[in-house]
Amino acid sequence: MNWGTELWDQFDKVTDHTQKGIEFCERYTHFIKDRAKIEADYANALRRLTKSYLPKKKEEESPFTVVKSFNDSLKEVADIAGQHELLVEQLKQKILDEMAKLMTELKIERKKHIEESKRLENQLQAQLRTLEQEQVRAEETFRNADANLNLSRAEVEKTKNMMHQKAQACSECKSSYALVLEQTNNHQRDYYNKLLPQVFQSMQELDEKRIIKIRESIKQMSDVERGIQPIINTCLDLISQSSEKVDHGEDSRRVIDRFKSGFVPPDDIAFEDLGNEDTKSIGSSNSSKTREPTIKSSSGTTKGPKKKEKGRLAGIFGGRVSNGLFLCTYITLAIYLHLLVH
């Protein structure tokens, strides 16, 4: 299909179509530019994110496998960010630069073809005006000659020479008009069958060039992104492998190694007969020998509080009391213990 033969009388619509094609090309270029910006922002955000979660100093690194796996995955995410940065670079170099060059060429070529069309049209219009002027001059010559001939019938002898001159002038004018008419027809024929179709053909090639370039660009965009996928897939595989190194049992053992104090739990507390002074003193002595519980602090293992008050319950009844008061108290305590047992 050829625009020159099929659209010979639709030049304005063809020029409008090619203009819209260039505008679409610009719109597509803006899409690539915005896509590259999004990829760049995404890569920067990934890098900032991984940097904020990685340990700042080597001594801050954790011995636990789950933390090590997470840190390794963060490093792989940073490598993925690097691949997106590479994608941005290739989008700019291989697509954006080429599309910018293409749009410049399209605008220049389109302007040149439109100017050529106007020049050819002006030449045709000038030839038509020449034909029109020649036609008017021939008509005036024939009218004048016809008037003179009518006048010369009354005086044939007197105007014989004048008649011959007028007839010759009419013949020359007729020949001139025929020549200009032939030239005009040839020019018009060339204009519609050769010159204008060439302009249309150039416009068609211009538009097809735009379409082909955009088609290649779309494919190239997918190829560029597909090119970074192997490395991204490798990073993802390494993240998966890192996750397999997580050992919950090992981490539990490390918790024991890290926080174990080495102490053993205290022995059972012996029963003290609070009514027997000898037993009370022995119990107090035994109580004082009981191991103190240990308390783990942030700075390490420390001993518990200082020795408890010896025989605290016995101290309730310490001091000198009368035998009656002591007996009463003893009986009350025995009843209380009996109730507790039963």
UniProtKB/TrEMBL annotation:
Q: Which SMART domains match?
A: FCH
Q: Where is the F-BAR domain?
A: 1-251
Task: Kindly list any coiled-coil regions of this protein.
Answer: 92-148
Instruction: Fetch the Pfam families from UniProt.
Output: FCH (PF00611)
Q: Does the keyword Coiled coil apply?
A: yes
Report residue spans for region: Disordered. 270-310
TM annotation in the entry: 313-339
Identify the keywords attached in UniProt to this record, alphabetized.
Answer: Coiled coil, Membrane, Transmembrane, Transmembrane helix
Superkingdom of source:
Eukaryota
Its protein name is F-BAR domain-containing protein
Q: Which organism is it from?
A: Bugula neritina (Brown bryozoan)
